[in-house]
Amino acid sequence: MKASISCVIIFLILIIFSCTKEFNNPYDRACPSILWTPTNLIAVLNQATITISWEENETHFDGFVLEKSADSINWSSVTSGLIDKTVRTYIDSTSNSRPNVFYRIYAKADLNISGHTYSKDLKLPISLPTITTTSFTSITSTSVSCGGIVTSDGRSNIITRGVCWSTVPNPTISDSLTINGTGIGIFMCTITGLNPNVTYFIRAYATNIVGTSYGNTIILSLQYPVYFSTTGHYYRFVARPNISWTDARDEAMSDSMKYNGLRGYLATITSSEENTFVNEITKGTAWIGATDIAQNGYWRWVTGPEGLEDGGKGLLFWKGTGFQAKSDPAEYGSVNGAFQNWNYWNSPFSASLDPRMWEPNDTGGVEFYAHITFFPSDPADSYYWNDLPNSGATGDYISAGYIIEYGGL
Ligand SMILES: [Ca+2]
Ligand SMILES: [Ca+2]
Q1: What is the DSSP secondary-structure string of 257-304?
Q2: How far is the CA of 360 from the centre of ligand 2 (A)?
Q3: Cα 381 to ligand 2 centre (Å)
Q4: CA torsion angle 338 341 345 349 (round to 10)
Q5: Domain 26-123 is in which class?
Q6: Which residue spans of the chain are classified as CATH 2.60.40.10?
Q7: Hey, what CATH class is 130-221 in?
Q8: Which of 114, 145, 199, 342 could form a disulfide with 37 if both were Cys (CB 3.0 to 4.6 A apart)?
Q9: What φ, ψ does residue 35 adopt, rounded to 5°?
Q10: Is the pTM of this model over 0.85?
């Protein structure tokens, strides 16, 4: 009997201790979660990441589940599997789209899960949105379709977005604009009522509570380039008041000024036929692709196919300036009979100067860039070439734009 009682007692003891002793991992069973819930969860914002740390003294479990939320209602795990149970720190480098971030952490054993510990609400900084301007589509003589892509809302809702445009660079929402909804992502719009003889600057914008961001500027000129069969090239006057020669050169070669896949360049005028055609489309003081900046008095076509000649220095077509003309005739005039159309005055300014060759005169020693003259009050002196400083000059010498040429590259 005593033996029977002893057996029963031993059996009961075995049953009692089975909760903690019989299985390899006691937390596989529903033991009080208070015993193995991680504690002291802390989240710290770094430059581009968030470092989360916690404490856990128990070891009888399989790993951690770390979750995050923007509203403490909808939660998602920050890892695809469990975080190893030996780990006490995790760096979250996934993008956190909203300013509020909450974390919570569990320990997990088989299918059983502990209670969770919350981090405090972590406030991420909000910033300006980021946005890019999309290319043009559906271009007509008075309208164009374009749009933007809001790639980030800066963790704050996009209040409004669209495109804005102006006839001068860097348009803002104070200029003409479209309004195309809210939120991140792609949007499209159509701008109508445009003037085909004007150059427009267009860029997308997006506004959140921090402010307004702008995308890249794209340049729109609706006037189609005109084909000239003698050269097989296309030409157009691009209206760009006050543009410098170097900016005109760069803009003409930019992707946004391509025409039918052809890359443009400041026009190179190498025959009287080409000159006559270019003059017909010139609507104001306009830069062309000649300069003597590399060597004063040595005028070269430095753009387009001519710009590739002479080892990349460009085609030399003229030597000298007005004053050099008299002092050293050997260093003056067309090179190899190249076409030129420099301006001259029918009445000489000085008897010491050749009345028919005054430009390029390098006034002040700072004139290195060629343009086509355009004098509303003096048509007889218009459509000739003159040298000017890079930024142009005053009055009728303020640049109105440039002549772009396509073909031969
Ligand atoms: Ca040419
Ligand atoms: Ca000059």
Answers
A1: G-BTTBPEEE----SHHHHHHHHHH--SSEEEEEE-SSSTTEEEE-ST
A2: 5
A3: 13
A4: -50
A5: mainly beta
A6: 26-123, 130-221
A7: mainly beta
A8: 114
A9: -75, -25
A10: no
> How many A from CA of 315 to the centre of ligand 1?
11
Ligand 2 geometric centre to CA of 30 (Å): 93
Provide the token pair at 134.
């999309």
Per-residue tokens: 206: 């997006």
Ligand 2: centre distance to CA 365 (Å): 10
Look at residue 278 in the predicted model and tell me its pLDDT.
Answer: 97
Separation of CA 346 and ligand 2 centre (Å):
16
Ligand nearest to the CA of 269: 1
Over the chain (409 residues), the average pLDDT of each successive run of 10 is 50 44 59 85 87 92 93 92 96 80 92 88 89 82 90 94 93 97 95 87 96 92 86 92 94 88 96 96 94 96 98 94 60 86 66 65 93 87 94 92 94
Between the CA of 254 and the centroid of ligand 1 the distance, in Å, is 18
* Domain ranges in the chain with CATH number 3.10.100.10: 226-406
Cα of 193 to ligand 1 centre, how many Å?
Answer: 33
Domain 226-406 has CATH 3.10.100.10: yes
Q: Give me the phi and psi of 365, to 5 degrees please.
A: 70, 20
